[in-house]
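tool_call: predict_structure(chain=1)
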Amino acid sequence: DETTHQSSQDCPIGDTDKDTENEDKGTDKPPPPTPLALTGPSLALRSVVQTLRTQVTEPALAIVRSLDRILDIGIETEGSEGFAQYTAGLRELDVMSLVPMVLRKYGFSTEVCRHCALLTQTLAEEAEGDTKLVAMYETGICDLLAFCMHQHGYNPEVSGPILSAIGTIAYPDANLASMLKTPPSGQEPIYKYAVTALETTPDEYFVVKSVSYLLSLLLNADSEAAVPDLYLPPLVHLIGHCAEAVVDTEEAVDLSCHLFDCLTQYSVKAFSSCYEVGAHFTAIHTLKAYPECEVRCQKATFLLCTLLAQAAEEGKEEEAVGVMVRAGAVPDVLAVLEGHADNAEVLDPCFDALTALMLDDGVTAKALYEAGTHTKALRVAATFPANPGLVTSVCRHLSRIANDNEDRSTALMHMGAIKTALSVMDRHGDNDEAVLFGLVLINGIKDKAPEDEFKAHLIEIGGHEAAIRVLKMYMTPDTEEGVAAVSEAAGILWNLTYDDKTFRPDIFNLDNVGLLVPFLGTCKDDERVVLSVLGTLANMCHCDTLRDVLFEMGVHKMAHEGLKAFPETENSPVIAESMCEIIMQFAGAGMSNVKTLIADGCTEWVVGALKQYGTDPEQSDLVLVGLGALGYMAEEDSHVKTMIEMGVLDTVESVCAAHADNQEVHGVGIKVRETLEGKVR
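tool_result:
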């Protein structure tokens, strides 16, 4: 009999002598004074529990039989009306109090420990609310079970059920999961027992599964940015099991899912550790080995997405993408995409993984385009229009396919990609990411598609109206995605208003001016919004009616504030160009405006912009509007001397020298110089 007695002092926690004394008297926990007001299973359960409470001096085998009967009643009634009576009986008879008592008395028995663990899991599963589970934890049952596991040399027959029971108790409450790291005085933390169990029996399915589950709970509960050292030892074991789980059985699939969930959480907090031990290779291996297994493919591609996202955050994206591409990730993910065309849960991470693997080099984008992923993406968007996550992934993927390439951008436009984006934005207007990446796709195509053709197509299908709707939706954006959506929507209007001599009334109108200008205040700290809104307003200044309104609103001052906020970024010259364009348009409307602009300090602003950015040969447009603005300022006689004193002539000469091959710049520069010099004479 495997229940050979050991001394009670070898058993784990608590005052064993006192417990034994109470057990011998049969007074450890008397049965409830009133019988259950239930029938059937509850009465059978009551009989077994009463017997168990009086069996404290019986051989361990008798205890096992009683515990087994308690579990059997639950199995027999599961799925029937009697199961409610059974669970009610577990609570009213306080069966939980039996488990520590039995473990302290009979913890030497493998079967007793196993049955106590199974009963604990049953009780945890039926506990009503987190408070009941906290109460279970506070009985010390988790520490007691863990110590029993240690006492039995991590026998997998004991370790598996014990670890599973502990995980069930800890699951709903992050604080409970965190307690697994906090041992009672003089004892190892529960988590270390779990790691030892994994190292002792690394090939036991139930142990590996339970440890990976506990690890997931701990990682999820831990608020620290970095993973503590105590989480790292089992990582190699888990990676190995993922890679070696080559049996396509239900158990193997279930284990793979647990392991991939655990590795995904690991990668968020310990990317370097996951990357160094080859978590990405494990995911790619799984895609190669099981392209037909939906759940494995979904978990593996999601792990790849998470690893790539973390690599980007740590500045290692280029390296990680290169390694994964060379390892064959692209064709493997493509095969999964093709094989699971009707499964949204698999398709979503597939598109995200392929998008991340494209990076910005254009090589992978070209290969994926040639493989037809854009066609598949458009088909998926049409098949799953109500799935916001999936259609967002599709828009993100298509925008990366365009990737500053005219042929691909034009083809996507002709295939209806912009219509797809508008449909996503319209259907999922309450989803910030869906709206944002619909706009990103439109702007991605805009950047390289033939300009006139793009504008005509976008207006024909109502793209300008969609952009205006987005701006109205996010008047006071409170999320990062909302602010980015404002930038993208204003960017569309910036493009549509550029060089538009017809001044379309559905775009060039006072309502849209009133819509755009406030963003220079509400989003003044976001460079993208300032850039695109000022660009649009600069274009709108060409319309006489709107120009006068914008002048009265003081938009030139807002433009200067925008440039002051972002003086040394990649977009600073473009912001400066918009400011100079606005000032030039206002000044061109008459001398009264010129005097106001001079009084506001606009001459200094323009000269400063020309000095800082105008000597760049790439900034000829900025120089033209800057010199144009100075030309209007020079018409004000009383201001000429001040302009000369602030070095306008030297500034004109230096920017003209920097643009020696640009005849238009030289022509405007000569005109400004002649005006100033003529008035001085």
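agent: The chain has four domains: 1-196, 224-358, 360-461, 571-681. Proceeding to next step.
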